[in-house]
Fold:
Amino acid sequence: MHEGLQQARAPIFDVSSAIEVIHTGSYRRLPKSVEEIGTQNTLFQDERKPTLKKLSTLVRAKLLETLVPKEMSEVSVTDGIANVQVDGEFKVLLTLGYRGHFSLWRILHIELLVGENTGPIKLEETRRYVLGDDIERRMAVADNPLTILYTILHELCISFVMDTVIRQTNVLRQGRWKEAIKSELVSDSHRSAGQGGNNAPTQLGQDGELDSSGFRIPGLKINYWLDERNSGSAESDSSPFIKVEALQDMQIKCQHSSFVLDPLTDKEADLSLDLSCIDVEAIILKAIACNRHTRLLEIQRELKKNTRISLSPTDVVLKRKEVHMDVLQKVLI
Structure:
């Protein structure tokens, strides 16, 4: 009997409907026919406002007891819906009630903010549904559900960013930058081949399923000011380059091969990507302008060291040693 009592459950009584019948003498949700049973899912107009207010209170309380990643720039609650956003990456609408459990998060909508000049990347409805379902299942069993949400969507956005960078670079190489730049994929040096499983970036496969088995996001190296003598040898090429890659912390990093100064600020150049409007050509043009400015400053510094050159603070005057006629004649002979 003791074992049987452990499995015993009391029925869930419809207290709200009983109170309505006692106070009003009627029941507004009573269907007119058997076929209409199950279709009375919407709230009446006078029930919506207090219900949404109570739901908003529950969502705010859930957010207070949940660890929110610092990368989430916006977390707000309106009408029982939590809006969490990472600038330039994604926006998600959440509420409570996953599969009838009011303590678990349910995803209402996922929107990617990563994109180009033509606009953000659009996920197909089927893939967005599969992605949301997979994230919901992982959040339901996780101690930090919002961290799981951020990790999966952040890695997905980073993979989309690198795909876009590689595609734009290939378009430039086939177009007007054909003879001016070259590019090559670089492996991720921050992770060894033995690391896998949960550390791998999350990808959407062709069937819409999430795939994180051993995938590594490649980086891209873009050379400009190509040296014609070494154009056929990648190892001996000394031309400047930009390297775009995802570091160990899964953040996109743009690095120049050498230290360059920004001509507008005279500080170290920032070649970071705008994830919401990725433009590889703009990054290349900025790198060229900064490199040219830095090299001119180096030339100016060397010229100022020469004591035989008369300079004003803003002018550079080059002088050459005089050559006597007899010396010139000997050279000609």
Observations:
- The longest strand covers residues 101-112.
- The chain has one domain: 2-35+51-325.
- Residues 124 and 208 are 9 Å apart (CA to CA).
- Helices lie at 2-6, 15-24, 45-64, 125-140, 145-174, 280-305, 325-332.
